[in-house]
Amino acid sequence: MRISISLTRRKTAVVLFASFLIVASGLVAQAPPAAKQEKGVTASLEFDGSADSSGAVYELDSSVGYAFSNHFAIGLGLPIYFAQSSSSGQSNSVYQVGDPSLGLQFKFPSPRLSYNTNLTGVFPTANTKHGFSTGRVTYDWSNHFDHASSFLTPFVDAGVANSIMDTRLHHRPYTTLGYNAHFGAGANKDVWKFFTASASAYDILPWGPQKIYSRVAELQSGSNPSAGKHGRVFETSATTSGDASLTRDNGYSASLDASPNRFLDLGVGYTRSVRYALNTVSFSVGVNIGSLTRKSSQH
To answer: Are 265 and 168 in contact (CB under 8 A)?
Structure first.
């Protein structure tokens, strides 16, 4: 019975993902091309953080790459993590250099339907003790479609991976290892000058054996009444293995982003995990060093 359920989930996730790409790719093919973007060396520095009842996870991420055209770019990234527990009593924290990553990005902008696809590979160099590495090569293939209008910009996301990756405004208190398909849908709205509001829902459908590496369990030094509730094993155990139900997750999020110029990106966000009954608040500060350098050289 367990095997048949696992195969059914896997087939469902793969079929949904494949059907989504086939339909959306047909729509993209019918759309006219948009104006070209800048190309050349890219570089950025970003500081993000997320906090919930389990603890807080911060990331300083540096990346450098090259945009070959308005359609294709490549980038290398190296994160530095800092985690802190939220238990009562003595506060514990840890920092660690994370795994380097290599990313390939393809963009197909269009007034009708824009399509971005990203393939990211993460290479295990960090210690798995504090949950900032799985000790294995992991990957994520994500696809994003959006349609810009004068009122709203609805979007849909779909991807497959062997680990649940962090996003800019959602750093989980754990890392996972195991196959999954992930989906999302929502809309963006320009609210005032350089501010953009966003709301969306997400669903993660894993299959096969799964593993969770906690970023906060070993930092707990006092009592936490909610520890381990609602399947939050990452609050009590450094490493947990199980079936697909271990990392199954779904929820919704909202964010407010600000881009006052071409060099600075700011953001705050809120995510509610329905599966874990967990509320997360996040922030992000990003500096586009490549654009800043190009402007300085022009002057």
So the answer is: no
